[in-house]
User: What shape does this take?
Amino acid sequence: MINILSLTHHLGGAVILQDVNLTIQEGSILGLVGVNGAGKSTLLRLMAGVYLPDEGRVDYDGHTPAEEKTREGIFFLPDDPYFTHNATMCSMLQMYLSLYPSTDKAVYRRLTDGFGLDEKKPLRTFSKGMRRQAYIALALAIRPRYLLLDEAFDGLDPLSRKTVKGELIRLVEETGTTVIISSHSLRELEDFCDSYAIINGKTVSSSGDISEKTARYCRFMLAFAEAVPAGLFDGLPLVSVERSDRFVRAVFDGEAEEIERQLSAFSPAVLERLPVDFEEAFISEIEGGKKL
Amino acid sequence: MTSFKRYALYHAKSTLLRGAVMAAICLLLCFAFLDVTVIQENGVDSWAYISLSILPLILAFLAIVMPILELDGFKNRRNLDTLLSLPVSRTKMAAAHFLNGLVQLVVIYSLCVLLGLMRMLPAAAFLREQHLLSYYLLTLFGGLIVYAISCFVLVQAETTSDGIVLMLLYALTPYVLLISFNAAWLHIRELENVFGHAFPFSPLADMASLYEKAIEAKDIFIPNETLAMYIFWCVVALLAVVGYFLTFARHRTERVGGISETFWGYRVLIPLLGISLMLPGGIDTALAVMILIAMTVLYIIYRRSVRLRRSDLIMLAVTTGVFLISSMMQS
Assistant: This one.
C-alpha cells in the first residue's frame, strides 16, 4: 500500500503541491488526473524518489522511495524519457536487466513483437509513438511492484492503446502490481482504472473508486416549449450547466430521483436523464469547484 | 551482486568506448610531443634531454574533462527522471560515476607514462628512469586533487557550462584570496612564494617539474612551501570529495538546468574574488573598473540576464566601497 502523507513541495519559491494526502491500495490501477500544471508529474517524481519532498512523505509499506530497497520495486516511466544518441531497445533492456533482476525477457519479446518494433534500431529513429511503445514494453517487462506512468498513452495509436490497457490489466492480475497512471484522456482511464485521484488547487481534491464517484453525479437534458423558466435550479445541487433559449443540460451532485421530481415540476417538454462519465465528473469538479 | 556493483559495471561498460577514444587521443598526443633525445658529443652519446611536459598537461586535461563527461548526464532533467528512479541510491550513483572517471583517468595516464618509459629506454644510460615511479605517483596524486575539486565544483552547478565557469573561478579564488590577504594585512614577503602555489594545479605542475629534473639525473630539492601547499591541496581535495557526495545526495533535481544558486557557487565566489582584489589598496582606478566590469559580466552569466538582482547590485556597490576605502587608507 502507498500512503502519501502531508506531502508539500516547492519550486523556486512557488508551492507546487501542498498537504497532499492519498492512500493507494495494493494491486489497484489509479488514474491521476488534473489540469495542465496541476502537479501530476511532480507528484509522480516525488513518488519515484526523483524529487525529495520539502515536507511530508511518500510511504511504501513503511519505507520511503529514497531507500534503495523501495526503489527496487518501483519503475517510473516519465512523459518524455531520455535516451542516449545511440540507445536501442536492446541496450535499454541490458541496462534494466542489470538493475532489475525481475525483468521478464519473454514479456519483453511478446510486446516488442506485438508492437512490431525493431529492437536493434536506434530509438532516435523511432516515431514518438514507437518510442512510447518501446518504453512501455520495457516497463511491463520489468514486472515492478509499483508502476508509475506519466502520460503513458500520449502518442499511442488506438490499437496500441488497447494493447497497453490489456497488458496493464494482465500485469495487475498476474503480479498484483499497483499502477499509478497520469493522463489527460479521462475516458481512457475510465476503461481500466479502478480508482482515481484528482489534483486540483495544489492538492488531491478528491480520490476514490471511479464508478462510485461517477454514480454520485447525474445529468439531465431538458427542453421547454417557451423560454427556460426562471428559478429552474433554485435549491438544486447544481454543478455545471449549458443552456440555450429553450434547452438546458445540467449536471447535479445529488440524488437523481429527487432532482428529477423537482425538475418535472417545471413541466419541460423533454426531461431525459443521461449517464455521467468520468471526464464529465472531472470537468464538473474543476469548473464547479465542488468535491466529487 | 549489490546494486552498486551492478550499476558501476553497467556504467563502466557503457563508457568503455569513450575511455578508449580518450586513451587513443592522449597516447597520440604523448607520442607526438614527448621528447627524449640523446645528445652526441664528438660522435659519442654523452647525455640525454627529455621533455615530459605533455604528461602533466594530459593529466590536467583528463582531471577536468573526465568529471565533465561523468557528470554531464546529471545536468539534464529528462535524464534524471530515468537515472534517479533507478534502484541505486544517490550516494552509490555518485560513487560509481566518481570512481569510473577516476579509473579511466588513472588507466589513460598510466598508459601515457608507460609510453614515456618506452621512449626513455634507448637513453636509459643517461637517465635515472627509476625516478619515473616517483614522478608518476606524485603527479598522479596531483591530478587526482584537480579531479576531486572538479567533481565538487561541477555538482555545485546546475548546468555543465556553469560548472566550467565555476571551475575557472575556483582555480583563481585561493590564489587571489591569499595574495590579497597577505598584501592587505600580513605584509610578509616570504609568504608570496608559498601563496604562488595556491592553484589547484600547483601540486601537479610542481612535482612534474621537479621529478622531470630528477629523471634527467639532476639533483633536486623540494622547497618547504611546495611541500606545504601539496599537503594543503590534499586536504582541500579530501574536503571536496566529502562536499561532492553531500551535494549529490541532497541536490534538488528540479533545479537542474536552471540558475546555479548553490551557496558555494557564484553567490559566494563573485563577491569574494572582487572584494579580495580590491582589498590591498593601491590598485589604479582603471584596473578597479575592469574588476567591476568582470564582476558584472559574471553576474550576467550567473543570472543569464542583464537584469541583475538587488543582492548583485549591493555586492557591486560593496566592492566599489572596498576599493574607495582601501585607496583612501593607502594614500
About this structure: Chain B has a mean pLDDT of 90. The longest strand of chain B covers residues 44-51. The first helix of chain B runs from residue 3 to 14.
